[in-house]
Input
Amino acid sequence: MLYILLKNFISERIYSMIENILGIDLGGTNIKAAVVTLEGRLVTDRTVETPPSREASDVVGAITALGRELLAEYPGIERAGIGIPGLVDLDRRLIRYAPNFPNWHDVHFKDMLMKELGIDVRLENDVNCFALAEHRWGAGRDTRFMIGLAVGTGVGGAIIADGELYRGRSGAAGEIGHMSVDMWGPRCNCGNLGCIERYVGEQWFTMAAREELDDPSIDEPARVSALAETGDERALRFIESRGEILGVVCASLIHIFDPEVIVIGGGISKAGEPFFRGIRKAVQERAMPLMAAEVKILPAELGTIAGAMGAAALTLAGDHA
Amino acid sequence: MLYILLKNFISERIYSMIENILGIDLGGTNIKAAVVTLEGRLVTDRTVETPPSREASDVVGAITALGRELLAEYPGIERAGIGIPGLVDLDRRLIRYAPNFPNWHDVHFKDMLMKELGIDVRLENDVNCFALAEHRWGAGRDTRFMIGLAVGTGVGGAIIADGELYRGRSGAAGEIGHMSVDMWGPRCNCGNLGCIERYVGEQWFTMAAREELDDPSIDEPARVSALAETGDERALRFIESRGEILGVVCASLIHIFDPEVIVIGGGISKAGEPFFRGIRKAVQERAMPLMAAEVKILPAELGTIAGAMGAAALTLAGDHA
Output
């Protein structure tokens, strides 16, 4: 015990002297920060509450306080990245639109934070950050063509093309959650019909489970997983069948992108093996063998800190503003 | 008249002296060749029949004869590209698989043709060639992010990402025809359910028109277009509705890729304005306005020679083997 304490104490002193990078993941509920070595080792992480007002000035204030605290503790940090749940402008200086922060329009986040923190700051969409972390240090490491899916409240996507983030014309690429798997299916919040988000996004997953299992006590996906773990066959079958629907999208993504790996994270990925079994079953049934044979479909490895770690990884990518 | 003849005669003498590039488009029925200037002006084109045996040695012989003829007429040609209806290996030296040429497996096409023609030869998938031509010289010129769709017997796709062809892990990317728009829809030849090819590929388009219009005389898409042009409301509505189904895919592609333009060519695109009206209607109803507002959906401009011109364009791209 004393040995471990001493070892941690010495490690932290060493990490506080060498160059580290800082990543911050802004969410609607929490702000997470990660201090990471250049090799992707997580040195420390912190979580604070997102200011309830959600006003830009309050959020910048909260990120500044968190950033300054970590910069003081780890003096070797010269660069930071910030992941934002919204659309980051193409030059990555401002936030065009963020659904969780309805009053934000064209907020000059990069300049504000660079001024407050006194270091270089890079911005990127949060799902892109998640995918960058998984690609560099997680389940997608050592690949050049990766699709990342973050299945939580919504379904976010990100594309790594030949080792680089694919951003599209305006930086908005990767809205894989709004691929339609049933052109006459139920209406999604976005207005389209049959989007994959409408089947596996947490609220819809929960609603469908409540109906299909005829159990009004189901109030979150974890409840369905708990039922499945007790041996409830219908719960198990429900999770698999939702995995199969996501597998329809994965088969289409394999045909479109010819990727090496599809990495799936976010809250629903905790539904675990039955969910992934469903995905893989649908891919095997639907994707062209020549294209699908070598594609891996893997759970994300870095957990809820992936977004902050990926934000830190922004500082390592050459092409970022 | 004499002036035009004289002008053409002089132009051809000039083009025969300056540097041109040669493109050849191998199809199941015909082999097309295009001699193109470095600026994309079509100098001449030729079409010969694909050898009925479809054996690799016969096909190489036919391409060699056609190529030698044009090399003799246009001595400035030092590079050629060949478009192949199949999967070209990642190093673009051989053909892994071509459904129209069932006996071909790992045919060393590049080396065979370089030896026969005595010039540098580059290989690429034919739909990728179509998209390269439309991107460089056709409906997608002056854009960096383009999706190309070739809707004929099958539905092929190609992705131009930041000005370059996106090829994926093994070179097979862009199989957009096998995106499912209805996960429980009718079975496609590929085995998947509800692929877009199953709705707008020529045979399926024709079959559905025959059923929906209850007209057994319909034997090709052009017949439906002819009916629509005579004012047949049901034929018009059928073409629009098939356009709408392709529009479902276009909306998903806009969400995934954030492109500047989607260029649609191939036989079905001759269904013309009603088809494009259906596509644009579905995109307007289904795609997120923030992403779709500036995306153009355009008919291809270069016609049936696009594949050969794009094969020629291969010789201009830096990254080709």
The mean pLDDT of chain B is 93.
